[in-house]
Amino acid sequence: MKSRFGKKLIAVSVTVALIALGLSVSSALAARDNLYIVGSSTVYPFAITVAEHLGKKLPKTPKVESTGTGGGFKIFCAGVGESHPDINDASRPIKESEKNLCAQNGVKDIIEVKIGFDGIVLATSKKGQPMSLTTKDIFLALAKQVPDPKNPSNLIPNPYKTWKDVNPSLPDVKIEVYGPPTTSGTRDAFQELAMESGAKSIPELKELAKKDEKQFKSIAHSVREDGAYIDAGENDNLIVQKLDANPKALGIFGFSFLDNNRDKITGCSINGTQPTFEAIASGSYPLARPLFFYVKKAHLGVIPGIKEYVEEFLSEKAIGDDGYLAEKGLIPLPKAEREKVRETVMSLIK
Amino acid sequence: MNNINLSTADKVRKTLKKRYRKDRLFALYGALSILFCFLFLGIFLIGIFKMGWHAFLETRVNLQVYFDPQFVSPYNIEESDYEALVAKALSTKFPDVRTRQDKRELSKFLSPRAVDVVRNFAKAHPEIVGSSVDLWLPVGDGLDMLKKGVISKENALQAGLVTEKNLERFERFVEENKVTVSFNWYFFTSGDSNAPSTAGIGGAIVGSFYLVLITITLSFPLGAGAAIYLEECARRSKFKDFIDININNLTAVPSIIFGLIGLAIFLNFFHLPRSSPLVGGLVLSLMTIPVIVIASKTAVSSVPPSIREAALSVGASKMQTVFHHVVPLALPGMLTGAIVGMARAMGETAPLLMVGMVAFIVDIPRKITDPASALPVQIYLWSDQPERAFANKAAAAIIVLIFFMILMNSFAIWLRKRYERKYGERG
Prior knowledge:
The complex is a heterodimer. Chain A is α/β, with parallel strands linked by helices. Chain A has 2 domains: 36-117 and 290-349, Periplasmic binding protein-like II (D-Maltodextrin-Binding Protein, domain 2); 119-288, 3-Layer(aba) Sandwich (D-Maltodextrin-Binding Protein, domain 2). Chain A has 16 helices and 13 strands. Chain A has helices at 2-28, 44-55, 69-76, 96-104, 135-142, 163-166, 185-200, 203-211, 213-221, 236-245, 255-259, 277-282, 306-314, 316-319, 324-328, 335-349; strands spanning 36-39, 63-64, 87-90, 110-125, 132-133, 145-147, 155-157, 177-179, 229-231, 250-254, 265-267, 269-270, 288-296. In chain A, strands 1, 2, 3, 4, 8, 9, 10, 11 and 13 form a 9-stranded mixed beta sheet that branches. In chain A, helix 8 packs across helix 9 (213-221). Chain B is mainly alpha-helical. Chain B has 3 domains: 2-53; 56-198, no CATH class; 204-419, Orthogonal Bundle (MetI-like fold), CATH 1.10.3720.10. Chain B is built from 17 helices and 3 strands. A 3-stranded antiparallel beta sheet of chain B has the order 2-1-3. The longest helix of chain B has 51 residues, at 2-52. The model of chain B has no long low-confidence stretch (mean pLDDT 88). At the A-B interface, helix 1, helix 2, strand 2 and helix 11 of A face helix 6, helix 9 and helix 14 of B.
């Protein structure tokens, strides 16, 4: 008797549970009513700040995933519809191949919105010696293949072991750099801004760039794999901790990580300019890259809140010189450019 | 002959001491290994505790706030400008603040949450419009960290977490005895946020709760049922051996593969809502079922055959034997396996990544199809943020997760002890 009652109880409760689950599922298979944003881990802190501000006005707060710029475009360009994201954050402009992927999958109108700048810094622990580097030093220290010092038109695998080998005015310290992996947009930007510009300052490579662009890029973008450059993963806090433990090493990450840890690390000056907010905003710091987000025009009007999100993001309160995003570490566009972006984008969103 | 026997006995006696010593040494090595393990565990726990215990506290200051009818309308309590109220309250206390630069500095004295505290007070007491009230408001995270002793004054100043002027203002509150460090309930009730002082694990806890609920509802009946079938009803054949081997292998499959299955089947084929605990629970059930099957199989096969034979011999049918006699005796083992499987599922992040639960989600989920996060996911996201105070919050979330793990595992042990029956007793 006891076991039969027990069995009945179990049967009834399981049925009730399944019905309850079924009801809540069916009621919610309606259209998605919150924004779905993917993309760059660099733009992520700014996207979540705007999302939170917006969440106070809209019924549902936008959902933001940090997938990396490239990963984000893959998901973004997979199609149109509510199971696909509305917005992709990017720490670099969209590539041709990504535009093609989008077109192939029916994602035709994409609106590009430029929101500001980020600086890539090379930092070292306060316990070590901050160096004054040029992009040429960076290229020679970190490239996989460098021009043979004896015969510069030949390329040899990178023989330099210490910074002094690269440039006699630099200290005699082993080259050890922690940086982002190849999946990171920061790495793409570093290769383009630091390595390419460093390579171009070597006359032979500059010639090569004019003759064979593709080969030049492959040389400029290859980073050495013999242990001097260490892929430190996507977690920038980890790089900061490693620098604290190893005062002779350098780390590559975004400006906001330097800004939040100034008691532990200090930035190296690049081509004579220190990585400060003002230097990046004015364009005098060379390793500055623009940040964007891309909106799917097809989702406007279907998913509630996209227009409000773009408006909030582009408002002076957010990306202005004194905006809350500037406090978070976003380096603002010059005022005139801000107005222009606002005008263009808002007219496209009508 | 006697001589040989005696000398053998002597030989044995001589080596006896050595053998006893070897036994003692072996026991010592075993004890040392356990001590070593506890040492590492202790270092980890102490480290996490030191980093995270103060995130359960928050520093507040007592400030008089005037609910100016200009800014607060009793007809529109929700939408009134509470930021202006807080700014006015601060500038009344520190009237020497004039320039825009100084005003911005002053606005960082309090946490953004102070505005929410004032708003909630007005909503609860709408009659307060027109009068002043002394409210305890949370300070910004720099001052909070400084007061709790997390960071030294020099480092805080250099890292830009506090400013000299704000430090002086804080000192004034201290002199007037208007500072308190109290328990941070907000940490448990609020969802994620971009600012450390407003962020909490409330959303993550609800998400984890839904995940565990769905996982156990799906995986326990299916896992236990499969185990009972395999042990009791299935005929021994090559096919059954094949299934047994595969189930054993499934427990060793990396959890992210289950995430990929979830993405392909539940999201892309069935179009279930992304980032929902429903999909996350389905994926985690896939992961937990093999664990439960193995534990239940062991439990069921450890019931002595004499019980089955006795039941059959007094006329019970096969199903009656299984469900009235074997299963109740095997239940403690099944439950232990289920709870251990749950504890593992609660700590998984990789499969959730593939189905979109690794995301910034502020709203606390209300149904299983709302987007939600989970506790291990929250820890991962916070540990990646640049603001210093997030490191402490992540450590505090780790403490909460460990607490739940210990709770679940202790419950499993208690359950097993309580329902362990000696075979032969009538249960």
